[in-house]
Amino acid sequence: MKILIIDGQGGRMGGLLAEKIKKASIPGAEIYALGTNSTATAAMLKAGADYGATGENPVLVNCRDADYIIGPLGIMAADALLGEVTPAMAVAVGRSQAMKILLPVNKCSQHVVGVGEYSMSELAEQALSYLLSCIRENG
Questions:
Q1: Given CB 3.0 to 4.6 Å as the disulfide criterion, which of 36, 70, 108, 109 pairs with 84?
Q2: Residues 120-139: pLDDT tens digits?
Q3: Between helices 38-46 and 12-23, what is the axis angle to 10°?
Q4: Residues 91, 100 contacting (CB under 8 angstroms)
């Protein structure tokens, strides 16, 4: 099972996600840390991701056969994360057949109405909970 975590800037969210997913010990899961910059990739690898790569092309390539893609809502918006998400990256995530688990971070000119204010840790925990429920459902 291929789980992509895509994050940018300092990689704090991606690091939290990698740590929580790794601790959940999901059988057969491989965690791919895809950073929009090397700092984000390093943070996710340090937190326990199995593989890591940085930049646009790794996102384009790995979205093709991912089972799950997890990251901030901005990974589906061109020029999000202070410009770190390229239009091609947003298209690759959007077109992927993977289940997308998006965390509603209300920053960078994006606000999701109807969503409460949660800490980064709470959002990561909710994402893990949803990922586990999807895995149980799909076997």
A1: 36
A2: 888 888 889 999 999 988 86
A3: 20
A4: no
